[in-house]
Prior knowledge:
- The structure is a single chain.
- The protein has 381 residues and is an alpha/beta fold.
- It has helices at 18-26, 59-67, 88-101, 125-139, 178-181, 184-187, 200-207, 213-222, 257-267, 303-310, 362-369; strands at residues 3-5, 34-35, 48-51, 77-80, 104-107, 146-148, 151-155, 225-229, 275-279, 286-290, 293-297, 316-322, 327-333, 340-345, 376-378.
- It has 2 domains: 3-306, Purple Acid Phosphatase, chain A, domain 2, CATH 3.60.21; 312-378, no CATH class.
- Strands 2-10-11-9-8-7-6 form a 7-stranded mixed β-sheet, covered by helices on one side. Strands 1-3-4-5 form a 4-stranded mixed β-sheet, with helices on one face. The chain has a 4-stranded antiparallel β-sheet with strand order 12-13-14-15, with helices on one face.
- α3 runs parallel beside α4 (125-139).
- The longest helix has 15 residues, at 125-139.
- The structure holds fe (ii) ion.
- This is Calcineurin-like phosphoesterase domain-containing protein.
- GO terms for molecular function: hydrolase activity.
- It comes from Gossypium stocksii.
Amino acid sequence: MISCLSLSSYSFCEKIALKKYRRCVKWGCIKRPQVVSGAKKDGFGLRVFVLSDLHTDYPENMAWVRSLSTKRHDKDVLLVAGDVAEMYDNFILTMSLLKERFDYVFFVPGNHDLWCRWETEDFDSLEKLNKLLDACKQLGVETNPAVIDGLGIIPLFSWYHESFDREDDIVGIRIPSLDMACKDFHACKWPGNLSNRDSSLALYFDSMNEKNQNTVKRIQSTCSQIITFSHFVPRQELCPEKRMLFYPNLPKIIGSDWLEDRIRSIHGVESSSFACHVFGHTHFCWDAVVDGIRYVQAPLAYPRERKRRMNGGTLSISQMSDAATNRSFVRVSDQEMASCAWFRCNRSKSDSSLQVCNGLTRTEILRACSHNEHVLEAWDV
Length: 381
Ligand SMILES: [Fe+2]
């Protein structure tokens, strides 16, 4: 779950092709990534560990952080790519524990870090962001660009926007709305004209990086190796295709084009001996090169996700209701990235309406739903 990047001898056979990338983006073309081998185990020099989506509001995840060695990483760097905890107190505890274990800890905020629904104090998400950044400063956790042993490390603020999604939508099935699927729409509180429903948040967070431009330029001129990192996703190729997703509209709430532009402006246009960007948010483990930059995600993720991944997958079921349409849905999945289906609850239909759907057999669906009082009708089979 925690990933170590080898800095000593990694090199790319591909050159960065910015012009090509921009042309592809303009035309809506999506290029799937080249998967690369993991970090070299015999690397020497500075060790950089990366981690995202700790979600330590779950006691199991907080216990995992506590279980990290207090001695093994005293000369190491840790990049925390957002979603540490929803509760402010859990955030402080987690970052304190990490700072006790790693010599250098860097952080960028994720969406869950800015949720306000359970906080005792009355503040909005931007006020909470400032509180988190102040707390990091007091704990010695870095949130600004810095150079460690000649390695440039650049945290990048970001947020997602719906127009980041350029893949054709899945048609023929009913998919729950973004409001229903994404708690950010209810758990974040934004002041003024900022909203999850347009590009305003993506632009606002991207502009927060401007204050560091002079430091970034200095790092570019003095460091041959640079790692950038963000919570959100810079390219849609870093997410599985929609037909493979548990929630096919996921690409609408994960990434930012401005983030990728900023990453390209830092890592250079033509070539780089080392160009790496670390991200989080989707909870998919990732390590791939796209247009000359290595992109890495190493999420701790939710306890239930780890359990599903480690036992090979069991059918799970959960129920949600969409206030906007006054409908109920049940979702059934076998693994995080494998077969899944959405169902509309319908008490009046007989179970004979169930059919094979998205690779799940009728028996599998019935078994998964046996504890549910509703009889289900498949959306589209
Ligand atoms: Fe997230």
